[in-house]
Amino acid sequence: MLTHQLNESGIQVMKKIAKSLDGLRMNATETAENGVVGEDTIFLFKESGQFVSAEYSGGRVVQGYLVGVRTESALIFRYCQFDSDGNLDGGESSCEIEVTGSGGLKVIESFEWASRTGSGKNVLEEIRSID
């Protein structure tokens, strides 16, 4: 989706704004070495106003939840998850949301564990249905 905005010089520019995350299914296409999510981890997002949440599971993640806020093309959230090794972990993330060339959404997540040491980057991409 494109929108017109004025930049700091008062010149009108077009800016790409990501569509709603509500109802989207995503999976990790790139995963940090110390991360737990993977290609088999499916995220189901809900979005209402600035509020965003998701439930996720699959691969090494038995069950996970995230909750946060969105402003245009940014997302900040906290997450907690239980993995197949019996670990209950959590942390916080800040993300950029982009529209891909095919019109799908991509979330570029920078995370930091709160329950253990480490940080990293994951990339989640919309799972597009084949019509």
Task: Write out key terms for the chains shown.
Lipocalin, 131 residues, two-stranded antiparallel sheet, mainly beta
3D architecture notes:
- Strands 3-4-5-6-7-8-9-10 form an eight-stranded antiparallel β-barrel. Strands 1-2 form a two-stranded antiparallel sheet.
- It is an all-beta fold and 131 residues long.
- It starts with a strand and ends in a 5-residue tail after the last strand.
- It has no helices and ten strands.
- The chain has one domain: Avidin-like (Lipocalin, Beta Barrel).
- Helix content is 0%, strand content 62%.
- The chain is globular.
- Strand 8 and strand 9 form a beta hairpin.
CATH architecture heading: Beta Barrel
Unreliable segments of 5+ consecutive residues: 1-5
What class would the helix/strand composition place it in? mainly beta
- Tally of helical segments: 0
Instruction: Return the domain count.
Output: 1
Average pLDDT level? 89
Number of strands: 10
Strand content: over 45%
Rg, nearest Å:
16 Å
Let me know the largest β-sheet.
Answer: 8 strands, antiparallel, barrel
The CATH class designation is: Mainly Beta
